[in-house]
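Appendix C: a fully annotated inverse folding record. The material below is reproduced so that readers can follow the format used throughout the book. The structure is listed first as C-alpha cells, followed by the designed sequence.
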C-alpha cells in the first residue's frame, strides 16, 4: 500500500497519541481532557488557527495552503462510550465505566497525523478545516456544531469523514453514493389497562395481551406497508410488565428502534405506528400512548464527492481494495448533519479481525491510522493542487 513516507514516519506518534487518548475516555460533550490534548498537539504542529469551545468542547483548526482556494473539512469524532473496558491492555481506560469502544481515539489520532503532515508540507491551495467533534455517540455534537454556524463561519465547501470498520478486511475502503447509514429513531409505548386476578381475566382490561397484539401488528408495517425492496428495520427490544404468575398487571411498556434510509419511509412508519397503537388499544379496551423520538437522520453521501473520495482511496490502497458501492449499514452517524449542510462523503476503513464496535474487548487497530491519514492528505492535495483552479 502506498502509504506516504512521511506519514509512515509519523505512525508511531499516532499510536502514542491514540493510546494516551484511550486512557482518558470522556462522554458526550464533556470532553475537556481530550480537547486539551488535541489543542496541545495542534499548537505544537504550528497550525494557523485554533477555534475551540464549539459545541462545548469541539475544535475547528485551520491550515492555510499555498495560494487561494476553497476550504475542505475533515472530521474526527472524539467521545467515548459508557462501557467498562475488558481489553486488559496496558493503556486501558483509567476512567471507570468509560471506554473508547468505537475507535474515536483512533479517528482523532488519524486526523492529527494528517494535520501534522499538511502543516509541514502545505502542498495544496485554499484551506483545510480540521473538525474535532464531541458527542457523536450521544447528543448529536455534529448537529450542534452546525447549529452554531461552523460551516458558514469557516466557509467549508465540502466535508469528509472516516470510521474504522473491524471485521472488514484490513486496509479496504467501503463507501457508496446516497444513503450509507440509517436514520435512527426510538419509540416507547405505554399501555394502561385494568389489572386483576389471573383466574378472572374477564374482569380486567389486560395490557399484556394488548402489548402482544401491538408488537405483532407493528411488524406488519415492514411486511405490508413498505416496498419489499427497501432497506428498513423495526425492532421491538423491550417489553416490561407484570410481577407474578397469578396477577394481571395494570400496565405494560414496549420499547424499540426504527432504522430507515429515505424520508418517505421514515414518515410512513411514524404514521402507521400511530394508527396501529391507537387501533390496537381500542380493540383490546386499553389506553396506549406512543412516544416516538426522532434521532439522527440518514447519512447521505453526495455522488460526485463519493466518486472522488473512492478514486483517492484507490490511489492509496489499490483498486481491488475499494468498494465504491458498498451495502448500506443500519447503524447511525451524526455526521449526517454535516452532510445535510455541505456535499461530502463518509467512508469505512477496514481494520481486520477483532472485537466489534461497542464491545468491551474492542481495541482499535493502530495500523490503519497511516492509511486513513494518507487518504486525508491525498484527498486534500488532489482536490486542491497548488496552482490549480
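Designed amino acids, in order:
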Amino acid at each position: 500500500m502506498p502509504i506516504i513516507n512521511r506519514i509512515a514516519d509519523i505512525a508511531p506518534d499516532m499510536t502514542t497519541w491514540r493510546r494516551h487518548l484511550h486512557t482518558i475516555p470522556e462522554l458526550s460533550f464533556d470532553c475537556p481532557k481530550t480537547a486539551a490534548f488535541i489543542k496541545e498537539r495542534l499548537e505544537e504542529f504550528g497550525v494557523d488557527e485554533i477555534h475551540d469551545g464549539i459545541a462545548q468542547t469541539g475544535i475547528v483548526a485551520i491550515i492555510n495552503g499555498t495560494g487561494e482556494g476553497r476550504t475542505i473539512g475533515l472530521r474526527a469524532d472524539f467521545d467515548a462510550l459508557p462501557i467498562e473496558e475488558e481489553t486488559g491492555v496496558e493503556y486501558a481506560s483509567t476512567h471507570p465505566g468509560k471506554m473508547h469502544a468505537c475507535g474515536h481515539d483512533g479517528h482523532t489520532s488519524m486526523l492529527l497525523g494528517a494535520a501534522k503532515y499538511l502543516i509541514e508540507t502545505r502542498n495544496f491551495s485554499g484551506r483545510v478545516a480540521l473538525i474535532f467533534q464531541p458527542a457523536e455517540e450521544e447528543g448529536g455534537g455534529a448537529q450542534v456544531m452546525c447549529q452554531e454556524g461552523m460551516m458558514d463561519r469557516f466557509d467549508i465547501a465540502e466535508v469528509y469523514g472516516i470510521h474504522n470498520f473491524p471485521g472488514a478486511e484490513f486496509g479496504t475502503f467501503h463507501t457508496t453514493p446516497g444513503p450509507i447509514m440509517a436514520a435512527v429513531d426510538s419509540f416507547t409505548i405505554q399501555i394502561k389497562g385494568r389489572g386483576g386476578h389471573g383466574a378472572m381475566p374477564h374482569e380486567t382490561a389486560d395490557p399484556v395481551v394488548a402489548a402482544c397484539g401491538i408488537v405483532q401488528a407493528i411488524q406488519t408495517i415492514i411486511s405490508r406497508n413498505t416496498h419489499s425492496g427497501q432497506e428498513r428495520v423495526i425492532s421491538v427490544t423491550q417489553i416490561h410488565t407484570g410481577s407474578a404468575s397469578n396477577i394481571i398487571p395494570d400496565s405494560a411498556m414496549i420499547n424499540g428502534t426504527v432504522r430507515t434510509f429515505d424520508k418517505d419511509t421514515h414518515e410512513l412508519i411514524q404514521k402507521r405506528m400511530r394508527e396501529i397503537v391507537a387501533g390496537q388499544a381500542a380493540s383490546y379496551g386499553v389506553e396506549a400512548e406512543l412516544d416516538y423520538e426522532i434521532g439522527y437522520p440518514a447519512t447521505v453521501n453526495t455522488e460526485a464527492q463519493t466518486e472522488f473520495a473512492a478514486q483517492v482511496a484507490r490511489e492509496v490502497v489499490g483498486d481491488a481494495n475499494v468498494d465504491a458501492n458498498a451495502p448500506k449499514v443500519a447503524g447511525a452517524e451524526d455526521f449526517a448533519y454535516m452532510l445535510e449542510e455541505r456535499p461530502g462523503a463518509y467512508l469505512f476503513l477496514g481494520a481486520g479481525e477483532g472485537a466489534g464496535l461497542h464491545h468491551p474487548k474492542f481495541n482499535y487497530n493502530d495500523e490503519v491510522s497511516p492509511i486513513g491519514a494518507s487518504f486525508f492528505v491525498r484527498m486534500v492535495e488532489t482536490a486542491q493542487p497548488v496552482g490549480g483552479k
